[in-house]
Amino acid sequence: MESALWTRGAVMLFIEQEYAVRLSIRAVGDYLKRWGFTPKKPIKRAYEQRPEAVKQWIDQEYLAIEKRAKAEGGEIHWGDETALVNTDVRGRSYAPKGQAPVTMAVRGTRQKLSMISTVTNQGKASWMIIDGAFNHEKLIELFEALVADGKRAGKKVFLILDNLGVHHCKPVKAWLAEHQADIEVFYLPSYSPELNLDERLNADLKHVISTRVPVRTKAKLHAAAKNHMAFIETHPERVKSYFQDPRVKYAA
Questions:
Q1: Which of 36, 37, 194, 227 has the fewest CB atoms inside 10 Å of its own CB, making it the most exposed?
Q2: Which residue, among 242, 195, 251, 249, has the nearest Cα to 49 in the 3D structure?
Q3: 67: which residues sit within 8 A by CB, 6+ positions away?
Q4: CB–CB of 166/79 below 8 Å?
Q5: Whose CA is closest to 150, among 171, 181, 196?
Q6: What is the reported pTM?
Q7: pLDDT of 41-74, one tens digit each?
Q8: What is the pLDDT of residues 186-217, one digit of tens each?
Q9: 8 A C-beta contact, residue 138 and residue 116
């Protein structure tokens, strides 16, 4: 049952239904341990995800984009936007048995920023922190920055985005139609958000911010995000590591 969590209770019921043998919860735990099973935090995966379709997209759609980029001297970017909140708590912490770990959180001063960024297979990161909501105007602003950078390097931009409405609304389509010699945008299928490797950068940033001393002002949140993004920008090997995820691995 791919959609179920295999708890000791679920395994106990399965054994009873299939083999008419009634075991205790403790006995099931002992058997699972003996068989090499350990409790783990499950990986979240969208119900809509279809592994065979993911593989087909990588083997066919992405391969076609990659071939075009090489033939036209282009550079492939993976783009995504995310929200940054100073009250976000991530990761795990050790604590004595029976006691929950405690982390200091900011109360009454919730601050929020947005960020849109791109990463390339070669380890390049581009980013823009937004004070306010993300919209098509900010997306076009990113396009303009990517095109300007691409012209300096003599490379056309091939940008891969999630299939969100704001990514292909009328103003965005109109702008892209006028700049198709400099940039083309491709959209990921909706059945697997994990295809977008820029989400690894978002997770990297949020983890670092959440493990530091809580920031109480928007200015400090902005500074913390800016400092870590500047660090990522100067460490291409860190960005390249995002592309080595065994579930969706792209050539770097």
A1: 36
A2: 195
A3: none
A4: no
A5: 181
A6: 0.71
A7: 555 555 455 677 778 888 899 999 999 999 999 9
A8: 999 876 667 888 999 998 998 888 776 566 78
A9: yes
